[in-house]
Amino acid sequence: MDTKEIPTNANSGQFSYLALGDSYTIGESVEQSKNFPYQLVAQLKANEIAVKNPVIIAKTGWTTSELQTAIKSAALKQQFDIVTLLIGVNNQYREESKETYRKEFKELLQTAICFAAKGSSRVFVVSIPDWGVTPFGKQSGRGTENIANEIDAFNAINKEETLKAGVSYTDITPASRQALNDQTLVAADGLHPSSKMYLDWALNVAKPIIKSVK
User: Fold this and answer.
1) pTM over the 0.85 mark
2) Which candidate, 28, 45, 3, 17, places its Cα nearest to that of 129?
3) What is the DSSP letter of 167?
4) Are 169 and 156 in contact (CB under 8 A)?
5) How many beta carbons lie within 10 A of that of residue 32, not counting itself?
6) What gap in Å lies between CA 108 and CA 70, rounded to an integer?
7) With 90 as the cut, is the pLDDT of residue 61 above it?
């Protein structure tokens, strides 16, 4: 699936929004309108915050380094009122080092802050969900508990660096684990979140955004 980018003049909304990530940001296996960024926009509009359609730089399978490369290639010139960052699951899946993840996540976080017109107060990091509880995860042979421990370790890194930078952090990981017993939270591909799970993320991430802009 190709990187999706939408011009900031897609509509006449007041706030601009940049979403950076991987499959969890583009919404692999769900309609575009049901992915996390679009549902977040819908929630903000429901709270009387006019937001333009999101500019999305994300692709299924991307690690931190691949997202970095894509951001450079996109060569975006403008800043945004809202920036979200959710990245790291593919670093964990490919068994890449946590040291590399920390270094590249910190760099991406600083990039996100630079993209935000009002700096760190308008950047919102989302934790990595636990794919180990999905049908794909349970059949992967890597062990549900082992995957959970690895996800927790990567999230410990991104949370520490996020809070150190004075950026908002939303932990959606515990809720993502409800998919172990609730298949309505999993998309038809048996791996990615359903629109229902993305809605939960949107509701939770909307809270600090609303607080920051009102």
Assistant:
1) yes
2) 28
3) -
4) no
5) 14
6) 11
7) yes
- Let me know: does 152 contact 145? Beta carbons within 8 Å: no
Q: State whether residue 174 is helix, strand or coil.
A: helix
pLDDT at 156 over 70: yes
70 with 132: CB under 8 angstroms?
Answer: no
Band of residue 9 on the pLDDT scale cut at 50, 70, 90: very low
DSSP 30: S
* Residues 66, 62: Cα–Cα separation, whole Å: 5
Q: Which amino acid is located at 164 in the chain?
A: K
| Nearest by Cα to 21 from 144, 134, 117, 158 | 158
**What's the distance, CA 181 to chain centroid?**
23
Which run of H or E residues covers position 107?
helix 98-115
Q: What values do phi and psi take at 4, rounded to 5?
A: -105, 125
- Confidence grade of residue 13 (pLDDT, cut at 50, 70, 90): low
First-residue to last-residue Cα distance in the chain: 36
What is the mean pLDDT of the segment spanning 181-210?
Answer: 98
Which pLDDT belongs to residue 153?
98
Q: Name which of 202, 159, 198 is nearest 51 in CA terms.
A: 202
Helix or strand holding residue 149 (H, E): helix 144-164
Angle value at C-alpha 13, between 10 and 15, nearest 5 degrees: 110
